[in-house]
């Protein structure tokens, strides 16, 4: 982050980084009320070759929304929305998040005034989303409670969900190759004994076939 940086010299300051896969940007001068045009233009151009897979976007107090230019990053797989803590920040994440068709992981951290996720329709369009992390966001975390949260029905289909450091939902994912010679197994930490037993039984069966 660059808290004293208020502008970029070039309109397309990142345009030549055609193989860029990971970008962390934001936390700019508190004098700014929006991201500089050069940054936003660059982010849009990074979508042209589909190289950018992970984006961390850091807010600051005067920002009122996540930049809508991000909606063009259709190859993006991981999005981190971090430190949008200003009093004027919008209460709901934008509907255009649904355009991030390759998104697999969404991390929302330190957005204290955020109350709501996008609509159910928008989240359902994120068909590849399998991981949601919400941390230090007290209002939206409360609304995402599994027991009685107003936002829970929107996200209940997502395989892995962590709210304020607590795993509230997870799935065990395992794949075997067609020739039965290779088994790839992913188990999240703190798997319950019964589920671990079922996984091991599946493994023995997979190797025996």
Summarize the structure.
By secondary structure, this protein is of the alpha/beta class. It has helices at about 35-45, 120-125, 140-145, 150-155, 195-209; strands at about 20-25, 55-60, 80, 105-110, 130-135, 160-165, 165-170, 175, 185.
Distance between the termini: 53 Å
Instruction: Write down the secondary-structure element order.
Output: EHEEEHEHHEEEEH
Count the E strands.
9
User: Treating each run of at least 4 consecutive H or I residues as one helix, how many helices?
Assistant: 5
Helix content: 10-25%
Q: What is the arithmetic mean of pLDDT?
A: 82
Tell me the Rg in angstroms: 20 Å
Number of spatially distinct domains: 2
Q: Beta-strand level of the residues, as a percent range?
A: 15-25%
Shape: globular
- Largest sheet, if any? 7 strands, mixed
**Parts with pLDDT < 50 across at least 5 consecutive residues:** 1-6, 174-191
Find the structural class using helix and strand composition. Answer: alpha/beta
Strand order of the largest sheet: 1-2-3-4-5-6-7
Protein name: R13L1/DRL21-like LRR repeat region domain-containing protein
InterPro entries: LRR_dom_sf, LRR_R13L1-DRL21
Keywords: Leucine-rich repeat, Plant defense
Pfam families: LRR_R13L1-DRL21
Detailed description of the structure:
The protein is an alpha/beta fold. The protein folds into two domains: 22-170; 172-209, no CATH class. Helices cover 20% and strands 20% of the residues. The strands form two sheets. A seven-stranded mixed beta sheet has the order 1-2-3-4-5-6-7. Strands 8-9 form a two-stranded antiparallel sheet. The longest helix has 16 residues, at 193-208.
């Amino acid at each position: 982050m660059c808290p004293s940086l208020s502008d970029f010299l070039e309109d397309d300051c990142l345009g030549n980084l055609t193989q860029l896969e990971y970008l962390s940007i934001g936390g700019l001068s508190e004098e700014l009320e929006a991201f500089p045009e050069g940054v936003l233009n660059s982010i849009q151009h990074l979508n042209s070759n589909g190289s950018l897979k992970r984006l961390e976007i850091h807010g600051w107090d005067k920002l009122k929304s996540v930049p809508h230019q991000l909606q063009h990053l259709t190859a993006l797989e991981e999005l981190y929305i971090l430190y949008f803590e200003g009093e004027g920040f919008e209460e709901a994440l934008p509907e255009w998040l649904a355009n991030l068709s390759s998104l697999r992981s969404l991390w929302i951290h330190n957005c204290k005034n955020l109350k709501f996720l996008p609509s159910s329709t928008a989240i359902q369009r994120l068909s590849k989303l399998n991981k949601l992390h919400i941390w230090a966001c007290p209002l939206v975390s409360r609304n995402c409670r599994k027991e009685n949260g107003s936002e829970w029905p929107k996200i209940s289909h997502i395989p892995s969900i962590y709210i304020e450091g607590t795993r509230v939902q997870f799935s065990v994912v395992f794949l075997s190759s067609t020739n039965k010679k290779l088994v790839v197994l992913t188990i999240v930490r703190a798997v319950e004994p019964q589920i671990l037993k079922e996984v091991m039984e599946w493994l023995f069966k997979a190797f025996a076939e």
